[in-house]
TrEMBL record:
This is Virilizer N-terminal domain-containing protein. InterPro entries: Virilizer. It comes from the Eukaryota. GO terms for molecular function: RNA binding. It comes from Lentinula raphanica. One of its GO terms (cellular component) is RNA N6-methyladenosine methyltransferase complex. Residues 144-164 are annotated as: Disordered. PANTHER family: PROTEIN VIRILIZER HOMOLOG.
Length: 1269
């Protein structure tokens, strides 16, 4: 990008236009406007900007010309006069406007229009070449291929605007406040902006904001010129007789000066206590208001009132009403007042109020306020504990902050407590300042309808993370108070800087949720409205529009009535929000304004795909409206939804929600297929993305939260609760469709985690949806209380339906990698299977939960898994070894009592498959070269055998938690017979695998006649495989393991050699002894090891002579002699006679023919596409001789017995004896005769060419050589 043009233009004509013409076609990338007096170029100090005035709206038009015009004659005749418009809001200073006109068009003319006097600007971009580009070479093409975009690192917030990691979280607010002349203290500003709310007349007072309460004049009503002495202050004399509680409340709406003595505050509290009357509603209301007004003042004032007033003399069930409870709720945001109210007596009063018949006559707002008050009092104690306790309940503490931030009064009072109460400030200061980290995490204020859901993805929150969150909350609230103050004063510099900080925070993961949550307080939504409504562009107005745009992305924020009115008031011209986005925002506001009927209508609307960014936002708001209806009216909310559906839309609500999830899954599958059916999304990040130009990350950041919201709503609607309430039912068909869609969404969440950096909106939303999918499937498969209602009743349970869909959807049909999809399905299966090892939550109902847990496990074992036997078997066969072991482990734990035996069945089938594979491998060894199996198929078969052996070896491995179960399962004669047959087959081949060695060793080490039935065939096979292991073992020390060989000798001594074939054994035994006698065998032959070898050789000579075991193959005489010498040096003298006897009995046959080379079983399998196609295609028969029609020859065969007459002769009318002539219907009548229709048992004819291309009949005669895994 380079400088294309620099100029200072002056508008001309009545339309105030100015034009810039380029000498060549250009592609504009950026327009930079310089203020008056600015120097745009360092090397040219004489060039100075002359832009006037300081702010205006500038309309820019580009003449668009196609870079490669169409060859169509009509296109040539058409004039290229299309204008592409854009708008730049200039609010002073140097402004950069980045443009993206695409690569298909260029421009030679730029027109500017606006209310400006002069305009200094620089145009940057590139010149579009008009020459023909020569074709690239292969090297240039390879070098021009786009490389993978590196994952961007997560950006950290600069320390200067990061209160979360500062010891003083209010430092930024004080720095911003210093931009004002003679700025008041931050504590005073927060009290005025959040709590006290000065009157309009106070703003005009020259002493404002230092207008404090005059206790003598406004409260005690004494003349101000009378000096107080100690007797007057402490006696509460006749001046107190004029005490008026109404006047006191009016006076306390002003701040209390910090210079006021503590004695004066104590006197005031005592006067209030002395004028208490008997319990009545008016007095309770006044005292509650007094507590609320005192809560935001000096800490000693609230503490004095708490010490002077007795609660039981003011509040009881009869004196509480809505206003009183709301005032107490705000007052309880003060730590001292919360401690004062959190007593057993007052908590009993609240409980009695909620449960007494008196509460029935109270409005719903009263009971809600009482419930919130009781929760806040308990949560204050939890929050204070979390400030210093490393193992506190941080989730409840964060929920407390969410409740505090829901009201301006509560937020201001809490902020004053956290910054003014010495004990709380000290607790917060005691925590060390944490270092800014790329991996830092913050809890979430909003936990979606799931008490067990984590507050953020990544595990439990640490104490340091919670402290950082509290500091961030304090910092954001303090900056908001500065914004409110500067906006009230009209100071644009401080307001602009404060809004810039808020806008920056809004774009970060750490602060975004806190900022957006506090911005929906009423005064801030109104201030955004006032800032944006200014027609003249200002930086503060641009920041306001940007903040409002992002704020509306949050459905919970969009439901705010004040924010809705702010959006509806938006009118052009706007500085940042384009018209498309304004209309999209207006649509959302209208849906919220119309309420539930509009939400139902939007949910019923037929969508086009892929779902646009605008449509996704509307759907999210519609779901939020339905959730709000259920939350605000738990008793009648579902009835209201049903009534609205019947009135507005005749549809089934739950199936429609399931359809929406299916549509979302369809879009996600399209985005993450190998070849996406959707057009490429624009990835420009330089312009505000409109509804038509939204990027894929933006769309994903809406798709996943929409899925999460729908699943949470479905659980709330269809979950069966105790006591029974109105719940929507779901059909089995709908549940199947829903589970299939959820599984696809779950797979796509992992795709996003791979493609996008951690901390980006797309990644955060995908992680949250990942957990939501698991939670939904777990709840859908729950049995007992809390289960979902499935129609028809008495049919399949939710667990069976969910499990069936996941097992059948193992490879999927969504166009993604089937192996990856299979692993994702296994993850879901692993998550929904009940885990008996998971501990239950301790509490009073622990026994009840344990009973429910046992019922859940029994339901799965007896009623779910047996009905899914075939599906589980097919799913199990496709898994990799690690996943198979994990699935067997889960099934064994679930069926600990052995009621169903699903794990045993799967293991038995695995052994049968191993036997079938080894049998096929052995059979292929005896085929002729013409009949031999394809080499690729043989490799695949060996790989499959290796995977089966690896499964057995992993479970038999020492230390494995599956070892005991595996040995117990092998006691089954039928199962062990399959394994024995496979090992016997493998012993006759030259198969070499470390997994086979591991299985052999473990079976020998656990040899026990009473536990597992080892017949002679498997015993011989184990010994052969052990000897083969010695020949190939790289670790010599492992060759003569005393325990292993002691077992092996014991097995040999139990062999009955009558019906055994020792052909392979003779060769392997000689090769093993050759290893022991080799000079390369560097392991010291200790006496125990020498005794083992002597016992083995003695057994060889003890066998019948016809077995020829004493005639060794695979060893040379010299090697045997060396072995004798080594043994003679180590064996005790009493065994030398046995060794000498062996010298005479054992001989060597060096002429024996050795077996073929070893076949190493591969641990991995790599096939080319052609090889994969070959093994999956029907077998080819081109190599076999196929019958064919003999070629004709022109020369007659003179030696032939019959010479066929020419065709002309047969057709000749003169030929009477060779042919028969038919006339009319003679031939047809002949064919219709009974004799002609008789069955002659002759197969229908087939041409040889037809036979070649359709060899189905021959394929049926050959069984498959391997099973796909």
């Amino acid at each position: 990008m380079k400088l294309l043009h620099w100029c200072t233009v002056v508008p001309e004509g009545p339309s105030s236009l100015a034009a810039i013409r380029f000498a060549k076609p250009v592609r504009v990338k950026c327009i930079r406007i310089f203020p008056s007096g600015g120097k745009p170029f360092e090397q040219c100090p004489d060039i100075v900007g002359e832009t006037e005035p300081d702010s205006f709206l500038l309309d820019v038009y580009f003449n668009a010309q196609p870079v490669h015009p169409s060859s169509d004659s009509k296109e040539k005749q058409r004039a290229a006069n299309a204008l592409v418009p854009t708008t730049i809001a200039y609010a002073g200073g140097q402004v950069d406007c980045t443009l993206d006109l695409g690569t298909e068009y260029a421009t030679r003319l730029m027109i500017v229009k606006g209310q400006f006097d002069t305009l200094s600007l620089a145009v940057y971009g590139e010149i579009v070449s008009e020459t023909i580009i020569p074709p690239l070479s292969a090297e240039e093409i390879a070098s021009s291929v786009s490389k993978p975009v590196p994952t961007p690192e997560k950006r950290t917030v600069p320390a200067s605007i990061d209160p979360a990691h500062s010891s003083d979280p209010t430092f930024l607010a004080r720095n911003l406040l210093s931009l004002l002349e003679e700025s008041p203290p931050l504590s005073l500003i927060s009290r005025l902006m959040f709590c006290l709310k000065p009157d309009n007349d106070d703003w005009d007072d020259p002493d404002f904001p230092y207008l404090y309460v005059d206790f003598d004049r406004d409260i005690f009503q004494t003349p101000t010129n009378i000096e107080d002495d100690d007797e007057t202050l402490n006696s509460g004399g006749e001046d107190d007789s004029h005490f008026d509680i109404e006047a006191v409340l009016d006076a306390m709406s002003k701040p209390v000066s910090d210079d006021l003595t503590e004695d004066m505050l104590t006197r005031f509290a005592q006067v209030v206590a002395d004028h208490m009357e008997s319990k009545n509603k008016t007095q309770a209301s006044n005292i509650a208001k007094l507590f609320k007004l005192a809560a935001c003042q000096r800490p000693s004032l609230a503490l004095a009132l708490c010490q002077a007033i007795e609660l039981d003399t003011v509040f009881d069930v009869e004196t509480l009403d809505t206003d009183t409870l709301l005032d107490l709720l705000d007052a309880s945001s003060n730590a001292d007042i919360a401690r004062y109210l959190h007593t057993a007596d007052f908590m009993d009063v609240l409980s009695s109020f909620l449960s007494s018949p008196h509460s029935v006559s109270q409005p719903k707002s009263a009971t809600q306020a009482a419930e919130r008050l009781r929760t806040r009092l308990v949560s204050w104690e939890i929050f204070e504990d979390a400030l210093s306790n490393q193992h506190a309940d941080f989730e409840a503490a964060v929920a407390f902050l969410r409740d505090i931030g829901s009201g301006e009064q509560s937020l201001g009072i809490w902020l004053d407590s956290m910054t003014g109460h010495i004990d709380l400030v000290s607790k917060l200061m005691e925590n060390p300042q944490t270092v800014t980290s790329l991996n830092r995490r913050y809890p979430k204020l909003f936990v979606r309808n799931n008490a067990n859901a984590p507050m953020f993805t990544g595990g439990a929150m640490s104490h340091d993370e919670f402290i950082a969150f509290v500091r961030a909350f304090i910092g954001v609230a303090s900056v908001l108070s500065v914004w409110a103050w500067s906006d009230s004063l009209g100071d644009d510099v401080c307001r602009e800087r404060t809004l810039g900080v808020l806008r920056l925070w809004q774009g970060t993961e750490e602060y975004r949720e806190i900022v957006n949550y506090l911005l929906i307080l009423r005064q801030f939504t109104l201030r955004l409205k006032w800032i944006i409504s200014n027609d003249t562009p200002r930086k503060s107005g641009i920041f306001g529009e940007q903040i409002l745009t992002d704020l509306l992305d949050e459905p919970l924020a969009a439901l705010n009535d004040d924010l809705v009115q702010t959006v509806l008031s938006l009118k052009q011209p706007l500085s940042y929000i384009p018209e498309n986005d304004r209309l999209s925002m207006r649509k959302i506001a209208l849906v919220v304004e119309d309420g539930l009927p509009a939400a139902v209508e939007e949910l019923a609307f037929t969508n086009t795909h892929p779902l646009s960014y605008r449509r996704l936002r509307i759907l999210r708001v519609s779901i939020a409206l339905v959730e709000r209806e259920l939350k605000e009216d738990p008793q009648k909310g579902d009835w209201n939804i049903l009534q609205t559906i019947w009135d507005e839309q005749s549809m089934a609500f739950v199936p429609r929600l399931a359809e929406l999830v299916a549509e979302i899954a369809q879009d996600l599958n399209g985005y993450f297929r190998i070849v996406s059916p959707f057009p490429a999304q624009q990835q420009s990040h330089t312009q505000p993305h409109t509804a038509t130009t939204s990027s894929l990350p933006q769309v994903l950041s809406q798709l996943f939260p929409l899925t999460e919201a729908i699943l949470a709503l479905l659980i709330r609607l269809i979950k069966f609760a105790e006591p029974p309430s109105l719940s929507f039912s779901i059909s089995a068909y709908t549940l199947r469709s829903l589970v299939l869609s959820v599984a696809d969404v779950f797979t796509c969440t992992d795709e996003v985690g791979i493609l996008y950096a951690q901390g980006t909106p797309a990644s955060i939303s995908a992680q949250s949806a990942h957990q939501a999918c698991i939670d939904f499937l777990q709840k859908a498969s729950t049995f007992g209380p809390g289960r979902i209602l499935i129609e028809p009743q008495g049919g399949k349970s939710g667990a069976e339906i969910v499990m069936s869909v996941l097992l059948k959807n193992d490879v999927g049909m969504s166009g993604r990698d089937p192996a990856y999809h299979l692993l994702r399905m296994f993850t879901l299966v692993d998550c929904i299977l009940p885990d008996p090892s998971s501990g239950s939550i301790a509490g009073e109902d622990m026994a009840e939960k344990e009973d429910g847990k046992e019922d859940q496990e029994e339901h799965w074992v007896l009623h779910v898994l047996p009905n899914l036997l075939d599906e589980t078997q097919e799913f199990f066969r496709r898994l990799d070894v690690e996943s198979k072991v994990q699935l067997l482990r889960r099934l064994v734990r679930l069926d600990s009592k052995g009621l169903a035996g699903m794990a045993e069945y799967l293991f038995d089938e695995e052994m049968k498959l191993l036997q079938q594979c080894t049998k096929t491998l052995v059979s292929s060894a005896y085929l002729s070269p013409q009949e031999e199996t394809n080499q690729v198929q043989k490799i695949v078969l060996q790989y499959q055998i290796g995977q089966h052996l690896r499964l057995i070896g992993d479970m038999l491995r020492t230390g494995s938690d599956m070892l005991e179960w595996c040995l117990r399962t092998l006691k089954d004669p039928e199962l062990f017979t399959s394994l024995s047959a496979a090992l016997s087959d493998l012993s006759t081949t030259q198969i070499v695998s470390p997994h086979l060695d591991a299985v052999t060793e473990m079976l020998l080490l656990h040899y026990n006649d009473e536990s597992i039935h080892y017949d002679d065939d498997v015993k011989l096979a184990l010994i052969v495989l052990l000897l083969r292991t010695i020949r190939l073992e790289n670790d010599p020390a492992k060759n003569l393991d005393i325990d292993l060989w002691s077992k092996a000798i014991g097995v040999l001594n139990t062999l009955s050699s009558e019906n055994l074939d020792f052909t392979m054994f003779r060769q392997i035994a000689g090769q093993a002894l050759a290893v022991f006698g080799s000079s390369a065998f560097d392991v010291e032959l200790s006496p125990p090891r020498s005794g083992v070898i002597l016992s083995f050789m003695t057994w060889l000579t003890s066998q019948p002579s016809e077995k020829k075991l004493a005639i060794l193959c695979g060893i040379k005489a010299d090697s045997l002699t060396d072995l004798y010498d080594a043994l003679s040096a180590l064996l005790p003298m009493e065994q030398h006679g046995t060794l000498d006897e062996l010298r005479t009995k054992i001989t060597v046959d060096e002429d024996e023919v050795f077996s073929p080379d070893d076949m190493n079983i591969p641990d991995t399998l790599q096939l080319s596409l052609q090889e994969l196609q070959d093994i999956l295609s029907p077998p080819s028969f081109q190599s076999t001789a196929l019958p064919s029609t003999p070629s004709r020859t022109i020369v007659p065969d003179v030696l032939g017995l019959v010479i066929s007459p020419p065709a002309a002769l047969l057709r000749s009318s003169a030929a009477t004896g060779l042919t028969k002539t038919y006339s009319n219907n003679d031939f047809r009548e002949l064919r219709q005769a009974t004799v002609a229709r008789q069955n002659t048992s002759r197969l229908p004819s087939m041409h040889v060419d037809d036979f070649e291309v359709n060899p189905v009949a021959m394929m049926d005669a050959f069984p498959p050589l391997f099973h796909t895994q």
